[in-house]
Amino acid sequence: MQAREAAPGCWYVQGLSALGSPANQNFISNAGFIVTHKGVVVIDALGSPALAERLLAEIRKITPQPVTHVILTHYHADHVYGLQVFAALGAQIIAQQSGREYLVSDTARLRLEASRKELAPWIDEQTRLVPATQWINGRTELTVGDTRLVLQPVGPAHTPDDLVVYVPARKVLYAGDLVFRNRIPFVGDADSGHWIQSLDTLLGLGAEVIVPGHGPASTDARKDMQLTRDYLIYLRKTMGAAARDMTPFDEAYQATDWSQWENLPLFGPANRMNAYNTYLLMEHETK
Question: Which residues are CB-neighbours of 23 under 8 A, at least 6 positions away?
């Protein structure tokens, strides 16, 4: 893990293009931090408490300022399992209010139980899900020291509780998992139609640097949002046609040309699941 400066005062660490494992401590997503005169604002908490401790060590190499806030882009495991480290420091945790539903869901409970087995010893019985101390439901401005941040909910898209963070003075956008670079996006049960609309909204912010949820920072917003956007459009087009024609999924998947995407990292583990979930979504949308 090494902190990289995307713009003056705006930093991030970049996770691996891989599945979470004991070998990588679940370091498969990015986290950001913004250094101000009155404290540090962290964006996402990474995928294990050990990673959060490593992130803190990177922050302390750059500034002695305390972490005052943690802003969550969404409540997925690889972004939140480090939260308890920052909560113990007294940081205020901010998230979009739809994340409350995930916290009390069977999905969250079962995912944590599985992670305690699959990601041991980095996820264990001491690892817990931490709720936000402030839930927001609309555009919110946060000023820390000399730095103004705009917190903009953009879900339901990748998740119901997607939130992006824009730093107007630096024209830096922390986009969370609305943007994946250099790997296949994880679609899951996303609202891919609204996800595409949200990407168009993000383009309208005028950001010059984008820190995605996965992959390196971008200085070409339109180009580097395009991979995620094009992939979602292609999934909806191909699986939507299959759903309308009532073509069985296995037959539709085999008949689809995936050559544009098959050389990207995580195509193997993710693409079939993404396609199947999109097929089910398009079945629902066409009824």
Answer: none
